[in-house]
């Protein structure tokens, strides 16, 4: 908003006008103070491990690509090496060649590529476990999805302790109804380990249960995990008067309201400052 003052002897007044803010995007680095990240991991042959991405120091909603490197060689995603949508690395059926040092690189369009601190994966020397049961070792947490005017995807990963080449069947369920992957706006890939919901704004508002179920051949072993997706409408502000005239020294009251009854955090800005 900008302020103008009357001239030529007339009454002084203030005019409030709408303006546009142009924001630049940035990808500055990884937050090395993120205490949720474990940079040294110990595991054994035939077991599994997860290396989690640190928080990003970056603009929101960037389209970011992640690449993991072990001993300077890029890790190629395959049946036992899985890079999640969040940039985490999940390795199952660990082999001796999986031990060593790792780094994560992230890039987004023309922004400068960033590199994480070094991770170390050590061998505990234990004998390989018997692979006769399946467990889900990587799954997302509850998520709130806000309606948006721009199409976007919500991605969910479900990774089991057995590699995708093992005889493991992964199925997704929404509100206890199986997802085949042929539904409009839904697709599964990577042997069922990834579910993509495209432009989920059309979902009924409220809470929905999303579940992943994994089982081995003949149902000898199984595991399941579930989260809740909460869909809420985009806040829509009631229109304000485009111009308000007041004499200098008089009171000015601008009321901001929301058309839809959603929990909303309303902030006022003047000349770009809150």
TrEMBL record:
Annotated ranges, domain Ig-like: 235-274
Superkingdom: Eukaryota
InterPro entries per the UniProt record, alphabetical: Ig-like_dom (IPR007110), Ig-like_dom_sf (IPR036179), Ig-like_fold (IPR013783)
Identification of the protein by name: Ig-like domain-containing protein
Lineage: Eukaryota, Metazoa, Ecdysozoa, Nematoda, Chromadorea
